[in-house]
Design goal:
Elements (H helix, E strand, L loop, with lengths): L1 H7 L14 H15 L19 E3 L1 H16 L3 H14 L7 H13 L4 E9 L10 E10 L1
Antiparallel strand pairs: 1-3, 2-3
Helix pairs in contact: 2-5, 4-5
């Protein structure tokens, strides 16, 4: 919120929380978001979708970076269904890969429906980049999706 307040100054916010990783729910919510914004979504810069999630949790730094690279590739490839499958497979193994995979997948669906085809990895880091303990880290990434 502070970043949005500083950067955008004036904006309206519609917060959503998701408790499911269902691929169908992500697709349907993405379509509903596009429908709800209507013509505003056709005006460049008028709508911004933000999905927030940590990536991997509590692996050593090298393992976290490898796991996060795989997760980020699904996002960069705009592969929402693949992302959900990847994260669900991690959950079955007991590997927390991205707690907010459903919001990310939903944003991918909405962005694609609005014509987005490009992705850019803006920044990737783990907590080891700012704290010396490399034995248990959390991964973070910022990705932009655009037309």
């Amino acid at each position: 919120m502070p970043f949005l307040q500083t950067t955008l100054k004036r904006f309206k916010l519609v917060p959503l929380m998701m408790g499911t990783h269902s691929r169908r729910t992500c697709r349907e919510l993405g379509a509903a978001l596009v429908k709800a914004i209507g013509a505003q979504g056709e005006t460049e810069g008028s709508v911004l979708f933000v999905a927030s999630s940590d990536l991997s949790h509590y692996f050593d730094d090298d393992t976290a970076r490898q796991l996060d690279e795989a997760t980020i590739q699904f996002i960069l490839n705009l592969d929402a269904d693949g992302l959900i499958q990847h994260v669900e497979a991690g959950q079955r193994r007991g590997d927390p890969l991205a707690c907010g995979a459903a919001p990310i997948a939903t944003v991918i669906h909405a962005a694609q429906a609005l014509g987005a085809t490009q992705t850019h990895l803006l920044k990737y880091a783990t907590s080891a980049d700012v704290y010396p303990d490399k034995s248990r880290v959390v991964g973070y990434a910022a990705v932009a999706i655009s037309k």
